[in-house]
Amino acid sequence: MKRKIVAVVLASTMVLGLAACGGGDAGTTDTTGGDDAAATNEAGGDDADVKEGSSDDENTLTVWTWDPNFNIYAIEKAAEIYEKDHPGFKVDVSEIKSDDIETRLTTAVSAGDLSTLPDIFLMQDNSFQKYATNYPDIFTDLTDSGIDFSQFSQAKVAYSTLDGKNYGIPFDNGTVIECLRTDMLEEAGYTIDDFTDITWSDFMEKAKVVKEKTGQPILTSQAGSPDLVMEMLQSCGQSLFNEDGSVNIKDNKALKPILEIYQQMVADGTLVEVTDWDQYIASINNGTVAGTINGCWIMASVVANDDQSGKWAITNMPKLDDVDGATNYSNNGGSSWAITSNCKKVDLAVDFMNSTFAGSTEFYDDIISKGALATWAPAGDSEAYAQPVEFFGGDAVYAKIVDFSTKTPSNVTGPFYYDARDAVGVALSNIIQSGADMDDEIATAQDTVEFNMGG
Questions:
Q1: Is the model's pLDDT at 70 over the cut of 90?
Q2: Pairing relation of β-strands 60-65 and 120-124?
Q3: Whole-angstrom Cα distance, residue 231 to residue 82?
Q4: How open is the CA angle 364-368-369, to the nearest 5 degrees?
Q5: Of the candidates 105, 125, 417, which has an alpha carbon nearest to the alpha carbon of residue 245?
Q6: What is the pTM of this model?
Q7: How far apart are CA 122 and CA 334, in angstroms?
Q8: What is the DSSP letter of 140?
Q9: How far is residue 97's CA from residue 108's CA, in Å, rounded to a whole number?
Q10: How far apart are CA 271 and CA 48, in angstroms?
Q11: Non-local CB neighbours of 454 within 8 Å, separated by 6+ positions
Q12: pLDDT digits over 155-168, tens only?
């Protein structure tokens, strides 16, 4: 009976939850796509409803986060589970937009008054290093807290790690998946296995066959968005910054080959650029593209067309040829919890997190109904994650995604991640739209980021 109930819940709630897992800015209502648009529910509460400061009650923790159907549901479910063995425990949750949380953190530091900070808050992964670097006094060091960070995807842990110290508890999963229309692959003479554990050169040749046989590209991408480029970069364990914080764009061994692949696929007509995020999603739903490569939250958009149930499959992404460290795995998006330095009950907060987000299969089995996929490896071994999903051909896609997450290389984000990401996006746009020289654009991107860093 449990197996049947889980299967029904997964099928009926995937659309609501997976979008909220979100790209790197998991929590921005935006139509620009990728890192900004992946998480679609960012509505925040009224300022009057915000609980500031650490709770005075010895059994209560204050929390700032966004999205009632996803993040708030998760933290309240964790509290419900924890309360079973800790009677009287509760969380006092304030719904605040992701951007507004960051603004509040900055304001508190600028005012020299951290007493307004809650016990716990959620932060986008790609913002974590910026805040941990610039405002370290906000965070409680969790390195020796007893939380076993080795049980999480190390690529995920890296987002909230600075100078070897852990400042965050990993939450939702942004592992990259390749979703393909199996009916279109069959028309081209392929199966999903033909696209599993392959290289980009192999992928590009097969994409030509798919285009020839079906008339459709295998991928679409929002013009000017570097999402796919960033995913490919991380799949090699490469970053736009070096470990010492210096910019790694011009001398990046993987970036130019990646841009060349993108440019060639556009020229081949196997990757078609669209003008905005809505068109990107529409291409997936209306059958004008044979697949997509993105964070696992894209599944929410894939399953939106019931008529395509059973016609999609999931596998890993291609890896770069001839690049040391290249893998078939990457990440795009997610967020992590932080315990503030203002927390008056650090031991309670740590034990709460350690018993739920870092230690409960019961918890992860429940929140999968909201599309919240774990990066905590033991969750992938549970019965709920092993359930076949009819839409994806009866494959146990959730366990597969957790497995992918454990194989994803880490990357260096740093405090100027978005400056670098935006500079690469401009370079990509100029190369594709205007035919600009690739080497010149890469060099300009490097100069732009170094200027923004004050160098």
A1: no
A2: parallel
A3: 36
A4: 130
A5: 417
A6: 0.81
A7: 10
A8: P
A9: 16
A10: 47
A11: none
A12: 899 999 999 999 99
